[in-house]
Amino acid sequence: MMILQRIFFILLLGYSALFAKNIEVVPPSISFKSSLEADIIEDIYMTIHNGIGTYNAQQDNPSKLLHVKETFLPTKKYKTQLRNYYRKSSLRDKMLYMQKHHLSYLLEYRIKHSDIRRIRGTKNIYKVRMQLYVFTKDGKYKRFKTKLYFDTKIYALTDKSYNRITKLVLQALR
Amino acid sequence: MIKKIVFLCLFSLSLIADSIGYAAAETPDFGSSVYVNDDTLELFDEIVELAYDVCGDAGITVIVKLRLTADVINFKDTKVTYKGRDYILKPHEINAGAIEYFYNTYNQEGRQFLNKVARKNKLDALFYAKFKKSSLKKAIKRKEKQSTLIFIAQLYLPQSGATQLERVKIEVEDLATEPMYDLDVMKASITKSYLKMYEKALKLVQMTGGTSTSSATLPEEEEQPEVEYTTDEDTGVSIPTSKASQAPVYDENW
Questions:
Q1: In angstroms, what CA-CA distances link A165 with A49, A130, A161, A170, B174?
Q2: ipTM
């Protein structure tokens, strides 16, 4: 029984490995002016990953699962790698990059320094404008714009913003 | 051709996962720049311990317990190589190089580290939890009467490399001086988050053909830890019945 179960698992694993779609998330390439900026970008990064996990949880078929590839983290180690990626930021180069890394999707979110602003009249709420791009292998892309709110009292994205990112990722991958 | 098939089978066998594991959160280390009193440290210990216990209590099959604190490391592997040197890991023994290795891998290369742990221990899914250190530092420095701590419970699925988050909000009064908190409410929130993720984990593990599904089942109501729960209609947070009237109000519209 155990052997049969294992053989079945191997077959399933092979099947899902063959058809799984790969995805990578690329954070913005800005040098952080403050720890706040770094925290905001990291929080968004984590939430986008949560969106991908939610996408996987909604699937009924292993062949539709997204396999998350190793991604650029916004740390010093990956800074050069990120900078190089952004230097070659034409659509053609992105397609080449996706081919090289066997990606089905490439998620990229962009935030500038000027996109992070404290809301007037509040001490703890920051508004963040974010653009989310989803690139596909065939050279097509979709862009989504959103406004997010970061509360420094809890030092995290607000619940609404957290849910908004998850929804946006699901919408982007649809 | 046969060789290739045999190789593929062997490779697949090595990837067969067995269970759902749990890596304990680390008690935050605030460094020398922030003064943290003993009561506050005790609170963080309490939260970490609660999350640690909830796994067992809530029915999560705890196979591997990794305790990553400053002075205690329990790990299945006894040797790690870091910066070209080998470090032997022994439980309850301070080993500077190994601790540095764990801090760096756990903090900076979290996903790679989790992947490694999950693969080595043949896990279908791995639960872990953490605090955001910068937010805690700010909360302690502000010395406000009421603070909200965010404890992030995460689920890592090595099959797809995807993560799922649940944010547990913990309301604390007088964090910087004498922290006041409701232990039952805290436990209820943590349990609720872990159960949610456990359901997701089971679904994904079943889908990708993991082997733990036969033994792991969701706990029945009677098996819930000690207290009975009622769900607050406004907030959706489970609150122990006896404490329902004293439950803190969670503002959804921050």
A1: 10, 10, 6, 9, 32
A2: 0.77
Q: B130 burial class (0-12, 13-18, 19+ CB within 10 angstroms)?
A: buried
Closest CB to B160 among A10, A61, A65: A65
Residue B102 in domain: no
- Spans of all domains in chain A: 2-173
Q: Chain A partners of B204 at a C-beta cutoff of 8 Å?
A: 56-57
Residue B81 in any domain: the answer is no
Q: Work out how many domains chain B is built from and give that number.
A: 1
Which residues of chain A are modeled with pLDDT < 70?
1-20, 73-77
Instruction: Give per-residue pLDDT as tens, B107-161.
Output: 555 666 677 767 766 778 888 777 877 778 888 887 888 888 888 888 888 888 8
For A6-23, letters b (16+ CB in 10 Å) and e give beebbebbeebeeebbbb
- CATH number of the structural domain spanning residue B59: 3.30.160
Comparing alpha-carbon positions, the chain B residue that sits nearest to A63 is B208
The span from the CA of A169 to the CA of A174, in Å, is 9
The whole model's pTM is what?
0.73
Average pLDDT, chain B: 66
> pLDDT at residue B41 above 80?
yes
**Parent domain of B127:** 18-64+121-218+225-246
Per-residue 3-state assignment (H helix, E strand, C coil) for B86-134:
EEECCCCCCCHHHHHHHHHHHHHCHHHHHHHHHHHCCEEEEEEEEECHH
Q: Which fold has domain A2-173?
A: Rossmann fold (3.40.50)
> Residue B187 falls within a domain, yes or no?
yes
Residue B11 lies in a domain: no
Question: Mutation test of the interface with chain B: which of A3, A34, A49, A104, choosing the one with the most B Cβ atoms within 10 A?
Answer: A49
Strand-pairing partners, residue B105, are: none
Residue among B16, B167, B209 minimizing CB distance to A156? B167
One-letter amino acid at A141 equals: Y
Q: Is A38 helix (H, G, I), strand (E, B) or coil?
A: helix
Q: Which residues of A touch B200 (CB under 8 A)?
A: 53, 57
Chain B residues whose beta carbon lies within 8 Å of the beta carbon of residue A68:
160-163
Please indicate if any CB of chain B lies within 8 Å of the CB of A35.
yes
Pairing of the two strands A125-136 and A105-110: antiparallel
CB contact under 8 A, A57 and B161: no
B235 within 8 A of B250, measured Cβ to Cβ: yes
